Amino acid sequence: MEFTTVGVVGAGVMGVGVAQNLAQTGHQVILVDVSEEVLDNAKRELRTSLRAFALFNRAAAVDPAAVIEKIEFTTDYELLAKADFVVENVTEDWSIKEKVYEQLDRICRPEVRIAVNTSAISITRVGSVTDRPQNIVGMHFMNPVPMKPMVEVIRGHHTTPETIDTARRFLAEMGKECIVVEDVPGFVSNRVLMLTINEAVFLVQDGVASPTDVDRIFKTCFDHKMGPLETADLIGLDTILKSVEVLYESFNDSKYRPAPLLKKMVAARLLGRKSGEGFFNYR
Predict the structure, then answer these.
(1) For residue range 83-109, what is the model confidence (pLDDT) as tens digits?
(2) Can the peptide bond before residue 144 be classed as cis, meaning omega within 30 degrees of 0?
(3) Which residue in the list 135, 190, 198, 275 is annotated as catalytic?
(4) What's this model's pTM, rounded to 2 decimal places?
């Protein structure tokens, strides 16, 4: 195994999924976040996710205790000095990401590659706050991470072919393939998906159809497994709003303006599955 120890920064939904996938594929994981409370919640989410994974993948014979044993939960960023590769998963807020990368650039060994798990923020912009822009690469994992075989990999302006090759090998160790795309806001998947979800919210807001009927059209007419609003609940409505706002700011195009109903639901903490209620109820 080329990447024995992997740093995972951010213990939210995506960070926990990445850490679980890495531990299940034999890697030692250093999972970093800013508070013990967040890390305790991450442990609970991880146990729930492992039970679900075992339920849907009986042939995989996953031992939840052995997986958790491979993950070191910590608030100490300095431990990332041991990492052979780092995947950053903090919230889609530039003011937060910028500070995280200043720390990572100082702590991680010079040759270490750092993957930005983002749905919309520019990889080139992230690279610009480090002394290693050639080692910065985008990795847009899909949720739930352990269940999804494909990753959108994003090449920043300074990302070298060697870093792209390293990213491919890293993902192969996780059991995943990748598609490499260029660095534009939203890349391919979210430039399409966020616009679709935001427009679906407008349809509900305008009283055109209920959330159930909007999703039924996509599931029954297009054979999608999930409709756009169920997908939004899975991702988290706060993440959706931040992503749409980044697209709006990046393109200065009104087609990306966030739906007022989306803003209202986020303000009311109706965030989807992670809060127990979004467009649908999960309690």
Answers:
(1) 999 999 998 888 999 999 999 999 999
(2) yes
(3) 190
(4) 0.85
Q: What are the φ/ψ torsions at residue 271 (nearest 5 degrees)?
A: -100, 0
The catalytically annotated residue of 21, 92, 117, 140 is: 140
Query: Is 140 among the catalytic positions?
Result: yes
Task: Report, as an integer, the average pLDDT of 14-38.
Answer: 96
Residue 50 has pLDDT above 90, yes or no: no
Active site residue 157: no
Q: Answer yes or no: 190 catalytic.
A: yes
Which of 152, 243, 245, 275 is catalytic? The answer is 152
CA distance 155 to 118: 13
Residue 158 annotated as catalytic? no
Average pLDDT over residues 3-28: 96
Q: Is the pLDDT of residue 57 over 90?
A: no
User: Which pLDDT score is estimated for 104?
Assistant: 97
